[in-house]
Design brief:
The protein is of the alpha+beta class. The protein has two domains: 254 residues, no CATH class; 141 residues, no CATH class. It has 16 helices and nine strands. The strands form three sheets. The protein has a four-stranded antiparallel sheet with strand order 8-7-6-9. A three-stranded mixed sheet has the order 1-2-3, with helices on both faces. A two-stranded antiparallel ribbon has the order 4-5. A hairpin with a 4-residue loop joins β1 and β2. The longest helix is centred in the N-terminal third of the chain and has 28 residues. It is globular.
Length: 452
């Protein structure tokens, strides 16, 4: 290929990527949730659960953390990734908890009371911001609700915590209360309320689960030699995207009247307008700009960063592997970065496939908003929780192995993102993978891919 043709192809790819990110922003604003909640998977094995526990305590703030635990003969390797940079405090925290677990495992079956206490304190201190965010949401339920379930929790917390309402005590109480409620199988309790309880209790539950694993004599070799590898994030700070108006008018043939009707419907929907302001407000002027191009910070999704390393690993291609993907709702986000892929055929097919999916979402919503019949509401008691990062809901997918073009090398530089669509392109269009699913993959999943 000549230099000129190569440059032209590069420009065409950049324009298609710009179109992709632009349509992703629009679709996210007008159709944030694109699927129903998934059922919880309860049959995770001990290694799966341990990985999930670790991912919970590694999420310091409202960030996405992905984790893969690799079990070797006399050691274990933990691969972790997140969307943004690892800080010095992250490195220190990871070193500290790794050392705590080594000591706890070494001393078992004797309890290491002081070390366990230090482990509890380290986790709750590191995760305090996210814990408080979740606790505030549960407190809002408690303060503003008056049904029997809210009263029951309020009384339970008051009786169990008293004046010692520390974060770890609150998490413990919510953990115990959640177990009691789940055992009763009450269909009348709000699933959103129940999810808030579970999230607050997940910290104590994760710490307890990790310590139980560390004290298990069977796993001593794994804890005596733990190696932690952290992957560097891939970020584009100023990705240009087309304006909101530019994208919408592509679907209505530049019809100004139809565009105005569509905007009128959007203005009637607080959830849509909140997302539009979040995406299209200029950082410098703080003004909403719907008819001008903007720039956004985008990044590789941490989970696909980890997952891609598994997919291109020849040993795992032969053996097959299990992947546990958390996530309760199918959501669209506007910050996921298309990975750098050297295989142009795969990239072309991926772009085409994802753009087709986004076009379907946008076309359907524009049609609904501009016809005379009333559209669906974006709010209501059954609306998904916007903080539903999926930390405690897991989907289980067993990949039995590659049966098609196993010799194809994608040469992925970093990984992939947009969990469902990119993965579907990778496994379906390129490898013709034979796989089975217990549940569908989510478009977005919150706190981490965990695989073995």
């Amino acid at each position: 290929m000549s230099v000129r043709k190569s440059e032209k192809k590069c420009e065409e790819e950049k324009d298609r990527e710009k179109e992709l990110y632009s349509k992703e922003c629009v679709a996210r604003c007008i159709n944030f949730v694109v699927g129903q909640a998934r059922d919880e998977v309860a049959d995770l094995n001990i290694h799966d659960r341990f990985s999930c526990y670790l991912a919970t305590i590694l999420a310091r703030d409202k960030e996405v953390v992905a984790l893969w635990l690799r079990i070797l003969k006399d050691s274990s390797e933990i691969y972790i990734s997140k969307n943004f940079d690892w800080l010095n405090e992250d490195a220190k925290y990871i070193d500290d908890i790794t050392n705590y677990l080594k000591v706890i495992s070494k001393n078992s079956p004797m309890k290491s009371t002081d070390i366990e206490s230090a482990f509890y304190l380290a986790v709750m201190s590191y995760c305090r911001t996210k814990f408080e965010f979740r606790w505030d949401k549960l407190k809002n339920d408690i303060n503003n609700g008056d049904n029997e379930h809210v009263k029951s929790l309020r009384n339970y917390i008051s009786a169990e915590c008293g004046d010692s309402a520390t974060p770890i005590n609150i998490s413990l109480v919510c953990y115990e209360y959640y177990k009691q409620i789940k055992a009763k199988v009450n269909p009348n309790i709000s699933q959103k309320f129940l999810g808030h309880i579970k999230k607050v209790g997940s910290y104590f539950g994760s710490i307890k689960g990790i310590i139980d694993c560390a004290m298990n004599i069977q796993y001593k070799p794994l804890f005596s030699n733990i190696k932690v590898n952290s992957a560097s994030p891939v970020i584009i700070n100023k990705q240009p995207i087309y304006s909101w108006e530019n994208i919408i008018k592509r679907f209505i043939n530049e019809d100004e009247n139809k565009y105005n009707r569509f905007m009128t419907r959007c203005l009637e929907k607080p959830g849509v307008m909140e997302r539009i302001h979040k995406v299209y407000t200029d950082n410098a002027t703080k003004q909403l700009q719907l008819n001008d191009n903007v720039e956004k910070c985008i990044y590789l999704h941490a989970e696909m960063h980890i997952l891609a390393s598994l997919i291109i690993d020849n040993d795992f291609k032969k053996q097959g592997y299990n992947i546990v993907v958390p996530g309760k709702h199918q959501k669209l986000y506007d910050r996921w970065l298309l990975p750098h892929v050297k295989n142009s055929d795969f990239k072309d097919k991926s772009l085409k496939y994802i753009l087709e999916k986004l076009d379907q979402i946008i076309e359907k919503k524009i049609e609904r908003y501009t016809r005379s019949l009333p559209g669906d509401s974006d709010s209501g008691g059954n609306s998904p929780d916007l903080d539903d990062d999926g930390n405690n809901r897991y989907q289980y997918i067993k990949y039995k192995g590659f049966i098609g073009r196993t010799d194809l090398d994608l040469n992925l530089d970093f990984g992939m993102t947009w969990m469902a669509w990119i993965l579907e392109c990778l496994l379906g269009l390129v490898f013709s993978l034979d796989y089975e699913r217990n549940t569908n993959l989510n478009l977005d999943v919150g706190l981490g891919t965990r695989g073995f």
